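Our consortium's second objective concerns turning raw sequence data into structural hypotheses that experimental partners can test. To show how far this objective has progressed, the report includes one record in full. It was chosen at random from the queue rather than selected for favorable results. The single chain below, 208 residues long, was entered without modification.
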Amino acid sequence: MRKSSVVTILVLAVVGTGAYFFMADPFDMAGSGSVDDLAELFMEDLQFKDFKRAASYHSEFERERIDIGRSIESLFRVKHEMLDIQRYEIVRTNVDSTGERATTVVRMVAQRLNIDKEPGEKDLKLYWSKYHPECPFGGTCGTGGVCVDADDEVMHPVKGKKEKKRELPGDASAAETLDEEKSYACDVTIEKQWFMNLDSTLKEKPYR
């Protein structure tokens, strides 16, 4: 069995959902346990190729862009159905001094079918974060019940690039003006929780 190769999976753990969302959606696992618990469940979902549930550990703001199947293919250079994850274990979990960032190293024994002659050990490093479940990544729930950034500025939805290209200088439509006035409402009584986000930078860090 060859030497373990560390693959960095950038997972910025983000928010948790309230009990209402968890009960309403059986796939909504985010914030429902400790970092180790969530890492174990996430790896089980990868093992059984349940990508819908695997995406449920991520922030609601991130899930639409999550494509775990494609990320696995880019990372391991093999179709996800050809990656045979046989077993895995949590090696260690580290939490920083703020208690709001953590990393989990998971060691798995896996084989790329039709490529690897035998299974090998591969280490995955998961990155986590902890903040308010109703705010985008990096936001906190301000005293006014709206999400604010690190500079205490109210956070607004960001318009897509295509929408910006259609915009004429000095000619903002009523709808665009309304978008700029929107903010993210939040409940100050809800505690911060762990969430995960499988970042697209995965594609730049292939397993060798």
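The partners drew two points from this record. The CA atoms of residues 93 and 104 lie 4 Å apart. The longest strand covers residues 83-95. Both points have been shared with the crystallography group to help prioritize constructs.
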